[in-house]
Specification:
The protein is an alpha+beta fold. The protein has 8 helices and 16 strands. The chain has a 7-stranded mixed sheet with strand order 5-2-1-6-7-8-9. Helix 4 links the parallel strand 6 and strand 7.
Length: 325
């Protein structure tokens, strides 16, 4: 069997998955179908919008399946009719065994961490939030528990101090696409020696998780250290974005800001309340943290567009005795 005869079904939804699908198509692999999430309402007017994976698949003339339920008999019959040999999953959803166990060569997933570390929905964000210096991508065969199957290949990358979730996402997206190709080739050549994840750690308490991040999880805690808050802001930038509220002296007004980038200030001696603001209202905005200050680079006031701090201060004046909470 070669890559022209190997029948591949691809499953994915967001932009991260498009790069892997694109690599398969452009390198001549036989993608016979694409499964993605149903269209969702978005934007003004809440018109139904296709996922990035669906948009690319349709451009390439690939058959697209969008099941509401993955155990639906009609969907399962469509899969059987496609007669796929291998399924590839990139940023999709948890599959029932009846689906992942269907193809003779199995189903493998691309995950954006060095498994078994950072199992879960948001590994890129959590790796930066936790101050990791290294991460990567992993391909593994699906099994019953999410992100726990046997590892096929891994590729590592350094997390730079200036990286945020956006830059790391893009780098891992490209790395992941190449790892998908490498994995398919190894499966074609029957040259896969997968490793059980429990061989890579002694105690489950060693493992860090990457749970889904909700809006309430993104509020900044100014009582933490400079490095912790710095990592938190860049780990959530540009999406979903760390946020804080501006509290005035009489507490009558609370304005919510999203913060996208910052940098620690060397001046660490103060006796100020964390969240307090230091600014000339022209060129800089510093926020007090437990052991120093963070200088904010860009922010977004609710209902407004993202702006550099200089542009923002050109139209907004911070009063004395206000702070972020």
């Amino acid at each position: 069997m070669d890559k022209k005869s190997l029948r591949i079904l691809f499953m994915g939804t967001p932009e991260f998955a498009v790069e892997s699908l694109k690599s398969l198509v452009e390198n001549g692999y036989n993608v016979v179908g694409v499964v993605t999430m149903p269209d969702k309402p978005a934007g003004r007017g809440y018109k139904l919008q296709p996922s990035p994976v669906k948009q690319y698949a349709l451009q390439q003339g690939l058959p697209v399946l969008q099941p509401e339920k993955l155990k639906d008999e009609g969907f399962l019959n469509e899969l059987k009719e496609l007669g796929v040999d291998l399924q590839i999953v990139v940023a999709f959803r948890m599959l029932p065994e009846v689906v992942w166990n269907m193809p003779p060569k199995g189903t493998f997933n691309l995950h954006s961490s060095l498994l078994p570390q950072y199992r879960g929905a948001a590994p890129i964000n959590w790796a930066i939030i936790n101050g990791e210096k290294e991460t990567g991508v992993t391909t593994f065969f699906l099994s019953h528990e999410i992100d726990t199957g046997k590892i096929i290949f891994q590729e590592k990358t350094t997390i730079d101090d200036q990286d945020n979730a956006g830059t790391l996402h893009d780098r891992l997206m490209t790395m992941g696409a190449q790892l998908v190709l490498k994995t398919v080739d190894a499966i074609l050549e029957e040259n896969v020696q997968s490793i059980p994840q429990d061989k890579l750690f002694k105690d489950a308490s060693e493992l860090k998780s990457a749970p889904k991040i909700f809006k309430e999880d993104c509020q900044i805690d100014w009582d933490k250290s400079t490095q912790e808050v710095y990592n938190f802001i860049r780990g959530l930038s540009p999406y979903p974005a760390a946020w804080t509220e501006l509290v005035t002296e009489n507490c009558e007004e609370k304005l919510r800001f999203k913060l996208f980038d910052s940098k620690p200030i060397a001046d660490t001696t103060h006796n100020l309340l964390p969240g307090s603001i230091r600014t000339d209202n022209k060129t800089y905005l510093d926020v007090v943290v437990k052991d120093g200050f963070l200088r904010i680079g860009s922010l977004q006031l609710t209902g407004k567009k993202r702006m550099s701090i200089i542009d923002f201060l050109n139209g907004y004046h911070f009063e004395k005795k206000v702070r972020f909470n």
